[in-house]
Amino acid sequence: MPSVRFYHLHSQSPLAALPLLAQRGLDKGHKIFIRAKDDGAAAAIDSALWDFLPQSFLPHAIAGGPYDELQPVLIGTDFDPREELGGMADMMIVMPDAAGETPLDFPPCVTLACEILDGADPAHIALSRKRWAAYKEAGYDLSYWQQTGDGKWEQKA
Protein backbone atom coordinates (compact mmCIF):
# COMPACT_ATOMS: atom_id res chain seq x y z
CA MET A 1 0.00 0.00 0.00
CA PRO A 2 1.60 3.29 -1.08
CA SER A 3 1.96 6.47 0.89
CA VAL A 4 -0.41 9.07 -0.55
CA ARG A 5 0.53 12.74 -0.54
CA PHE A 6 -1.92 15.49 -1.36
CA TYR A 7 -0.34 18.65 -2.81
CA HIS A 8 -2.78 21.57 -2.53
CA LEU A 9 -1.90 24.33 -4.99
CA HIS A 10 -2.59 27.99 -4.30
CA SER A 11 -0.10 30.03 -6.29
CA GLN A 12 0.47 27.87 -9.38
CA SER A 13 -1.53 25.93 -11.90
CA PRO A 14 -1.22 22.14 -11.84
CA LEU A 15 0.83 22.17 -15.07
CA ALA A 16 3.20 24.78 -13.63
CA ALA A 17 3.74 22.82 -10.39
CA LEU A 18 4.05 19.37 -11.98
CA PRO A 19 7.59 19.60 -13.45
CA LEU A 20 9.21 20.47 -10.13
CA LEU A 21 7.33 17.67 -8.37
CA ALA A 22 8.46 15.23 -11.08
CA GLN A 23 12.05 16.51 -10.89
CA ARG A 24 12.10 15.99 -7.13
CA GLY A 25 10.86 12.44 -7.63
CA LEU A 26 13.55 11.73 -10.21
CA ASP A 27 16.20 13.25 -7.94
CA LYS A 28 15.17 10.75 -5.25
CA GLY A 29 15.52 7.85 -7.68
CA HIS A 30 11.84 7.26 -8.45
CA LYS A 31 10.50 6.06 -11.76
CA ILE A 32 7.30 8.01 -12.34
CA PHE A 33 3.94 7.49 -13.97
CA ILE A 34 1.86 10.67 -14.47
CA ARG A 35 -1.83 9.96 -14.80
CA ALA A 36 -3.62 12.31 -17.23
CA LYS A 37 -7.35 12.54 -17.91
CA ASP A 38 -7.13 12.07 -21.68
CA ASP A 39 -4.82 12.37 -24.69
CA GLY A 40 -5.18 16.16 -24.79
CA ALA A 41 -4.18 16.45 -21.14
CA ALA A 42 -1.25 14.07 -21.75
CA ALA A 43 -0.06 16.33 -24.59
CA ALA A 44 -0.31 19.39 -22.30
CA ILE A 45 1.73 17.58 -19.63
CA ASP A 46 4.30 16.61 -22.27
CA SER A 47 4.65 20.29 -23.25
CA ALA A 48 4.91 21.41 -19.62
CA LEU A 49 7.74 18.95 -18.98
CA TRP A 50 9.58 20.03 -22.13
CA ASP A 51 9.23 23.72 -21.25
CA PHE A 52 10.08 23.38 -17.54
CA LEU A 53 13.48 25.11 -17.42
CA PRO A 54 15.66 25.98 -20.41
CA GLN A 55 18.80 24.63 -18.69
CA SER A 56 17.24 21.33 -17.61
CA PHE A 57 15.72 18.27 -19.21
CA LEU A 58 13.08 16.01 -17.70
CA PRO A 59 13.29 12.75 -19.64
CA HIS A 60 9.78 11.54 -20.36
CA ALA A 61 7.41 10.14 -22.95
CA ILE A 62 3.71 9.70 -23.59
CA ALA A 63 2.73 6.07 -23.12
CA GLY A 64 2.27 3.90 -26.16
CA GLY A 65 5.75 4.13 -27.64
CA PRO A 66 8.20 1.29 -28.23
CA TYR A 67 10.42 2.23 -25.26
CA ASP A 68 7.88 2.89 -22.51
CA GLU A 69 9.64 0.60 -20.03
CA LEU A 70 12.86 2.64 -20.39
CA GLN A 71 11.26 6.02 -19.62
CA PRO A 72 12.01 7.55 -16.22
CA VAL A 73 8.73 9.50 -16.53
CA LEU A 74 5.79 8.06 -18.44
CA ILE A 75 2.57 9.99 -19.08
CA GLY A 76 -0.61 7.92 -19.41
CA THR A 77 -4.38 8.24 -19.44
CA ASP A 78 -7.34 6.92 -17.48
CA PHE A 79 -7.08 3.28 -18.46
CA ASP A 80 -5.81 0.71 -15.97
CA PRO A 81 -2.30 1.89 -15.09
CA ARG A 82 -1.14 -1.66 -14.35
CA GLU A 83 -0.96 -2.39 -18.07
CA GLU A 84 1.06 0.72 -18.75
CA LEU A 85 3.36 0.62 -15.76
CA GLY A 86 4.46 -2.93 -16.35
CA GLY A 87 5.53 -3.01 -12.71
CA MET A 88 8.24 -0.47 -13.44
CA ALA A 89 7.13 2.86 -11.88
CA ASP A 90 7.20 3.24 -8.12
CA MET A 91 5.76 6.76 -8.00
CA MET A 92 2.47 7.93 -9.47
CA ILE A 93 1.47 11.58 -9.88
CA VAL A 94 -2.25 12.06 -10.38
CA MET A 95 -3.33 15.26 -12.11
CA PRO A 96 -6.46 16.98 -10.73
CA ASP A 97 -8.71 16.16 -13.67
CA ALA A 98 -7.61 12.50 -13.64
CA ALA A 99 -8.34 11.78 -9.99
CA GLY A 100 -12.05 10.98 -10.25
CA GLU A 101 -14.54 10.71 -7.43
CA THR A 102 -13.21 7.63 -5.68
CA PRO A 103 -9.72 6.65 -4.52
CA LEU A 104 -7.50 4.94 -7.04
CA ASP A 105 -6.56 1.30 -6.81
CA PHE A 106 -2.80 1.65 -7.07
CA PRO A 107 -0.74 -1.13 -8.65
CA PRO A 108 1.54 -3.02 -6.23
CA CYS A 109 4.71 -1.47 -7.68
CA VAL A 110 3.64 2.06 -6.61
CA THR A 111 5.09 3.02 -3.22
CA LEU A 112 4.35 6.75 -3.42
CA ALA A 113 1.26 8.39 -4.92
CA CYS A 114 0.95 12.16 -5.23
CA GLU A 115 -2.40 13.79 -5.92
CA ILE A 116 -2.20 17.37 -7.16
CA LEU A 117 -5.10 19.47 -5.87
CA ASP A 118 -6.16 22.50 -7.89
CA GLY A 119 -6.89 25.19 -5.31
CA ALA A 120 -8.70 27.25 -7.95
CA ASP A 121 -11.39 24.57 -8.35
CA PRO A 122 -13.69 24.24 -5.29
CA ALA A 123 -15.50 21.21 -6.75
CA HIS A 124 -12.18 19.39 -7.18
CA ILE A 125 -11.18 20.22 -3.59
CA ALA A 126 -14.49 18.81 -2.32
CA LEU A 127 -13.89 15.53 -4.20
CA SER A 128 -10.32 15.44 -2.88
CA ARG A 129 -11.62 15.61 0.69
CA LYS A 130 -13.82 12.58 -0.01
CA ARG A 131 -10.86 10.67 -1.44
CA TRP A 132 -8.74 11.63 1.59
CA ALA A 133 -11.40 10.21 3.92
CA ALA A 134 -11.66 7.00 1.89
CA TYR A 135 -7.87 6.56 1.79
CA LYS A 136 -7.71 7.15 5.55
CA GLU A 137 -10.47 4.62 6.19
CA ALA A 138 -8.61 2.09 4.04
CA GLY A 139 -5.45 2.54 6.13
CA TYR A 140 -3.20 4.45 3.73
CA ASP A 141 -0.31 6.52 5.10
CA LEU A 142 -1.45 10.06 4.21
CA SER A 143 0.16 13.49 4.22
CA TYR A 144 -1.17 16.86 3.15
CA TRP A 145 1.08 19.57 1.75
CA GLN A 146 -0.12 23.11 1.13
CA GLN A 147 1.57 25.55 -1.21
CA THR A 148 2.63 28.83 0.36
CA GLY A 149 2.39 32.22 -1.34
CA ASP A 150 5.98 31.95 -2.56
CA GLY A 151 5.39 28.52 -4.14
CA LYS A 152 7.07 26.44 -1.44
CA TRP A 153 5.44 23.50 0.35
CA GLU A 154 4.42 23.26 3.98
CA GLN A 155 3.24 20.01 5.49
CA LYS A 156 -0.09 20.53 7.26
CA ALA A 157 -1.10 16.93 8.05
Write a structural description.
The chain has a single domain, classed as 3-Layer(aba) Sandwich (Rossmann fold), CATH 3.40.50.10110. It has an 8-stranded mixed beta sheet with strand order 3-4-2-5-6-1-7-8, with helices on both faces. A hairpin with a 5-residue loop joins strand 7 and strand 8 (153-155). The protein has 157 residues and is an alpha/beta fold. It has helices at residues 14-27, 39-50, 81-85, 122-138; strands spanning 3-9, 32-35, 61-62, 73-76, 91-94, 112-118, 141-147, 153-155. It has 4 helices and 8 strands. The longest helix is centred in the C-terminal third of the chain and has 17 residues, at 122-138.
List the helices and strands and how they pair.
Layout: E1 3-9, H1 14-27, E2 32-35, H2 39-50, E3 61-62, E4 73-76, H3 81-85, E5 91-94, E6 112-118, H4 122-138, E7 141-147, E8 153-155
Parallel strand pairs: 1-6, 1-7, 2-4, 2-5, 3-4, 5-6
Antiparallel strand pairs: 7-8
Offer a concise description of the structure.
The protein has 157 residues and is of the alpha/beta class. The chain has helices spanning 14-27, 39-50, 81-85, 122-138; strands spanning 3-9, 32-35, 61-62, 73-76, 91-94, 112-118, 141-147, 153-155. It has a single domain (3-110, 129-155), classed as DNA polymerase III subunit chi (Rossmann fold, 3-Layer(aba) Sandwich), CATH 3.40.50.
